[in-house]
Design brief:
The complex is a heterodimer. By secondary structure, chain A is an alpha/beta fold. Chain A has helices at about 1-20, 45-60, 70-80, 95-105, 115, 175-190, 190-200, 210-220, 230-240, 275-285, 285-295, 325-330, 330-340; strands at about 40-45, 65-70, 90-95, 110, 130-145, 170, 225-230, 245-250, 260-265, 300. In chain A, strands 1, 2, 3, 4, 5, 6, 7, 8, 9 and 10 form a ten-stranded mixed sheet that branches. Chain A is globular. Chain B is globular. The chains are: A alpha/beta, B mainly alpha. At the A-B interface, helix 1, helix 2, strand 2, helix 3 and helix 4 of A face helix 12, helix 15, helix 17, helix 18 and helix 21 of B.
């Protein structure tokens, strides 16, 4: 076993070195001012989509950002398990649900009103615990080779019609779908929501694990339509412009065109909450919001910044009628309702 | 020491039990709920089916590549363990894309006049994907065992006029059965804990339910995790009691193991092996290669298409580092347990062993969170939180089972009389261990180390939550790319992962088992 020893000894030495160096973060916080020269971010958004913005923030402010990337729900579980010992200062989530869970457990620090006021009403938690950063609109993606646009529904509620039996893909275990169902409960009440879910189940709606899987399936003609967020198809088309998948925006005001925000919050265990808010404020700056719109094709939430090119404007979509707080707190009920309906199949 | 190791591996179970108490989960009502029982039965059905098919394929492949005159067998020895390194979601994506209309398979079979493609969603797809990507759990231990079988028994059987098949069935198979069982058990445990493949292929298992409920219905998710752990523990203990009743085969290094001449079956076997590996390895690699090539040759720099080969250098080093260190540490940690069981039939060691093995069936995110729970506020070790040593510990916690079953088989194969002889000659225990037992155990231990290494290289949930900030691995790169729709970059990272695992498997495992 000579060779492994020769390889492994330096590797072990290296790792111990790495361990020794990994210890000095987050000790530079000044507790009297709540600021620090470096902060730790847990991000449910991929590095490809946010790294350039963090670099620009560091360049502008001199504050270093140590970012851990992962799945929003898993990072929320991590923060929950870490408790007061969490190294994280800021949490950015793909869905309001994960933020709502932490808010419900009193793990978030209330944000300054001036930060919350940057976005229009309805795009931040009403108690100021978290603020929206970008918006995604729910759409019905369809395969233009298989579906006549005249057959598309005017409302998401129409999809329970037998004419759509077996034709609409859903992702019942996905966070965005759950947020959508929570909004429906808020709008129509639990009995009507359960009825809609059961009717979708009776219609034999094929299941997929997540939005991107639905978009891929629609693209290759495996299923004709699917309920997803708007930008997945835009990215799929970027990769392969010949795909027949098209986004159908349901009319403004319909539940089917709900705006789901990605949001950010500062943790109550952070030693540098002021610096954390500085990062969130920067992500809502004109520069950052313009970049979001151009690079991620999500809707900027700062008023005055244009929607991504080729997309309808955000005004009038259902977001302002939805109480986002319920999207967080009520999610246990939503998960139970979805399971009860039998739509997971 | 064995007790300490056992306690270490109890961590995840203790965490799950504590969470159940804390959340006030009524485990019985969770268990007897139709919404739990149904997925549980689906998990068991898939677990049994995949175990059976991998046992047949893994054993057959090991025999063909190690013990026969199959053409190009050295190349097949290198290729055979590799499918293990595919993250199961990558395999499932490739399969779905391959069988989709307009996909690779349709293009291949449409000239033959077949125009209806089999539906790959549900049980069939999950069974196929998991069989393709988990049979190395059987292949590696069985190949290691076959490489070290003494030829004398087989020679006798053949001199008595038995044909190759009869020799295989009556001599080779009984001598390798403990390695086969060990591999089949690992496949079963992996299958019931898999999330990536079943969720993409729309097959509803208990683990899929745990993931769906993990955030917003934690009481139910933790209740189901406990059920899963209980099932795993039961299966592990049942297998152990069976194992105890089986006679142990002792291995003596004497001469080269016997090579069987396949005769006129030589070419049909070659075609079979090629066809199988074509599906399990070459097919996915071809699809990934196509995606990566499309990205590398595209002239537009968009999120969906851009590739950056240079950015994979760091993740590649991290992946190799994590895989190698974890393999060595895992073997070192579980060897004492395996040794105590095989040598002294120790009860404590038996219990410790069951814990180590059953822990493999808990979903990775549960194991990772348990470590966070135990470590974050602990004195001294809490300072290691989210550093490399602790990440390695998480890997060992999750993958220890793979090393422990292989180590157990390896230790049990060492003839006790050699040890006794060495003792009579005055050698002390450490010296006996190093000069007599360790060399005999080497192939089995290497097989275990290889499994741990490949599993670690593709590990995702613990890496995302516990790696030091900036410690990207190829697996996290693949996941991020998939998350942001960067198909080409994800495919490229997957290809690098396959090549890297081929190199490491050759250098660390296969070459040594061969030259043994």
């Amino acid at each position: 076993m000579q060779l492994p020893v020769r390889i492994i000894t330096p590797l072990l030495a290296l790792s111990l070195l790495a361990a020794a160096c990994g210890d000095d973060s987050s000790s530079d916080a000044d507790s009297s001012t709540g600021t620090a020269e470096s902060i730790t971010l847990y991000s449910g958004r991929s590095p490809e989509l946010i790294d350039p913005l963090l670099d620009a923030f560091t360049e502008a402010t001199g504050i270093a950002v140590n970012a851990r990337y992962g799945d929003s729900a898993e990072l929320a579980l991590l923060i929950q398990t870490e408790g007061d010992g969490s190294p994280a200062d800021v949490f950015i989530s793909q869905s309001p649900g994960a933020l709502g869970l932490l808010a419900g457990e009193d793990r978030l620090e209330p944000l300054d009103q001036s930060l919350v006021d940057l976005v229009p009403d309805g795009f931040a938690a009403s108690d100021g615990m978290w603020v929206g950063l970008t918006g995604r609109v729910r759409v019905l993606v369809y395969n233009a080779d298989l579906v006549d646009p005249a057959d598309l529904p005017a409302s998401v509620l129409d999809l329970t019609d037998p004419a759509y039996a077996g034709r609409v893909g859903v992702a019942p275990t996905n966070g965005s779908f759950q947020d959508f169902v929570t909004a429906m409960r808020n709008e129509l009440g639990d009995p009507a929501t359960l009825e809609w879910l059961e009717a979708m189940a009776d219609n034999g709606s094929p299941n997929y694990p997540k939005n991107s899987a639905i978009v891929e399936a629609v693209g290759r003609g495996e299923v004709e339509m699917g309920l997803v967020n708007h930008y997945y198809n835009l990215r799929a088309l970027e990769a392969d412009p010949s795909l027949p998948s098209v986004n159908h925006f349901l009319p403004a005001g319909d539940l089917g065109s709900l705006v789901i925000v990605t949001g950010g919050a500062v943790l109550d265990s952070s030693e540098a909450p002021v610096t954390g808010q500085e990062l969130l404020t920067w992500l809502l700056s004109e520069e950052a919001q313009t970049t979001f719109a151009a690079e991620t094709q999500e809707y900027p939430l700062l008023p005055g910044i244009d929607a991504p090119s080729g997309l309808p404007g955000l005004t009038g979509f259902a977001a302002d009628t939805i109480d986002y707080d319920l999207l967080g707190d009520g999610l246990t009920g939503t998960v139970e309702l979805i399971r009860e309906s039998g739509i997971e199949q | 020491m064995v007790l300490a190791i056992g306690v270490f591996f109890v961590g995840p179970f203790a965490y799950v039990i504590w969470r159940n108490i804390d959340l006030g989960t009524d485990v019985w009502s969770v268990l007897w709920d139709r919404d739990t029982l149904q997925p549980l039965l689906q998990s068991l059905r898939l677990g049994v089916a995949v175990s059976l098919s991998t046992v047949v394929i893994g054993t057959g492949l090991a025999w063909l590549t190690i013990r026969t005159d199959l053409p190009a067998r050295r190349m097949f020895r290198l290729l055979s363990p590799l499918p293990l390194v595919f993250p199961s979601f990558v395999g499932a994506t490739a399969l779905l894309a391959g069988f989709a209309s307009g996909g690779l398979v349709e293009e291949l079979i449409s000239p033959l006049g077949i125009d209806t493609l089999p539906d790959m969603r549900g049980f069939r797809g999950a069974w196929l994907v998991l069989t393709f990507f988990t049979y190395p759990y059987v292949y590696l231990p069985v190949a290691a065992r076959m490489a070290s079988l003494p030829p004398s028994l087989e020679e006798s059987a053949r001199m008595l006029g038995r044909g190759p098949w009869a020799v295989f069935r009556s001599v080779v198979l009984p001598q390798t059965s403990s390695a086969i069982w060990a591999g089949g058990l690992l496949v079963f445990l992996y299958t019931i804990s898999d999330f990536g493949a079943v969720t993409l292929l729309g097959y509803d298992t208990l683990t899929e339910q745990i993931y769906a409920d993990k955030l917003f219905d934690q009481a139910r998710a933790m209740g189901m995790a406990l059920v899963l752990g209980g099932v795993a523990l039961t299966v592990v203990m049942a297998e152990r009691s069976l194992d105890r009743r089986r006679g142990q085969v002792e291995v003596l290094r004497s001469r080269e193991p016997l090579t069987v001449s396949l005769g006129r079956w030589r070419w049909p076997c070659l075609i079979g092996v090629t066809a199988f590996l074509g599906n399990a390895l070459i097919g996915p690699v071809a699809i990934l290669g196509f995606w990566a090539w499309r990205g590398l040759t595209a002239d537009v720099e968009t999120i969906g298409l851009g590739t950056d080969v240079g950015s994979l250098w760091g993740p590649m080093l991290h992946t190799a580092q994590a895989g190698l260190i974890t393999a060595v540490v895992a073997i070192a940690v579980v060897l004492p347990v395996a040794w105590m069981i095989a040598r002294y039939n120790s009860r404590v060691a038996g219990a410790a062993n069951s814990m180590v093995v059953a822990g493999f069936a808990l979903p990775g995110v549960v194991t990772a969170l348990s470590l966070v729970f135990w470590v974050i506020d602990a004195p001294v070790i809490g300072r290691w939180y989210q550093t490399l040593p602790l990440l390695i510990i998480a890997y060992v916690l999750h993958f220890g089972a793979q090393a422990t079953r292989a180590a157990h088989v390896a230790v049990a194969a060492v003839p006790r009389r050699l040890n006794d002889a060495a003792a009579t000659l005055g050698a002390h225990q450490p010296r006996r261990f190093l000069s007599v037992e360790l060399p005999l155990m080497t192939p089995g231990l290497l097989a275990g180390a290889g499994l741990v290494m490949l599993s670690t290289m593709k590990e995702l949930p613990a890496t995302l939550l516990l790696a030091p900030i900036g410690f990207d691995t190829l697996s996290t790169q693949i996941w991020h790319a998939g998350d942001s729709g960067a198909l080409a970059q994800g495919a490229l990272a997957s290809l690098v992962l396959v090549v890297l695992s081929a190199v490491l498997t050759w250098v660390v495992v296969i070459r040594r088992i061969e030259s043994y």
